[in-house]
Design a protein that fits this description.
- The chain is mainly alpha-helical.
- It contains nine helices and no strands.
- α6 runs antiparallel to α7.
- The chain starts with a helix and ends with a helix.
- The model has no long low-confidence stretch (mean pLDDT 82).
Length: 191
């Protein structure tokens, strides 16, 4: 969990820098510092405020965990819905052919399989017990739309955000389905 959080926090700083370097090579550019600031306001500030307010609201949050869980899931669903809707409005299905879509699905499956196999291999190689292996497998493959879509909205023009996040939307859905199967399998094995 700490690694997944660290990865997300690191992504706040590295994503704009890497995108800025790639776009700069293409002859355009983005204001990397402005992107980092905007992403921090949208993603990091709520994270920090939430943790700082934990002493004040922690007991209430703990006693309303089911409600908070539904709210969390609903907000992620809303982010996905808005991103997908925006992509459709911008004409994503005219820009992306069936061949491109199939390629994205195939590459997402291959990437996820590589990451999951690597996570299992490295956790076993380092001697982690089964519970830690399970945590590494699930957290190590997680890339969230809740972080990716706001970052894309900051770094790319509105007209291209849908196309930019399409691979992330596909990867995220595949990851959720595969991890659900893995979770069931681990459960059946008694873990």
């Amino acid at each position: 969990v700490c690694s997944a959080s660290a990865s997300s926090i690191l992504g706040i700083f590295l994503s704009p820098v890497l995108v800025g370097m790639m776009i700069h090579v293409q002859g355009e550019g983005i204001d990397t510092w402005h992107s980092i600031q905007s992403i921090m306001v949208q993603l990091m500030l709520p994270f920090v405020v939430g943790h700082l307010s934990r002493p004040l609201i922690g007991r209430w949050v703990d006693s309303h965990r089911p409600l908070i869980g539904k709210l969390d899931q609903s907000s992620i669903l809303l982010v996905v819905y808005v991103a997908f809707s925006e992509a459709v409005v911008q004409g994503i299905w005219r820009q992306v052919s069936w061949y491109d879509l199939a390629s994205i699905v195939l590459l997402s499956c291959v990437l996820l399989a590589l990451v999951l196999c690597w996570n299992v291999w490295i956790s076993r190689r380092l001697g982690f017990d089964k519970a830690d292996e399970i945590t590494i497998v699930f957290c190590g493959s997680k890339k969230s739309l809740a972080n990716g879509v706001p970052m894309a909205n900051v770094m790319f023009p509105a007209a291209s955000v849908g196309v930019m996040v399409l691979p992330l939307m596909i990867f995220h859905q595949i990851q959720l389905m595969v991890c659900a199967v893995l979770a069931r399998r681990y459960h059946e094995q008694g873990h």
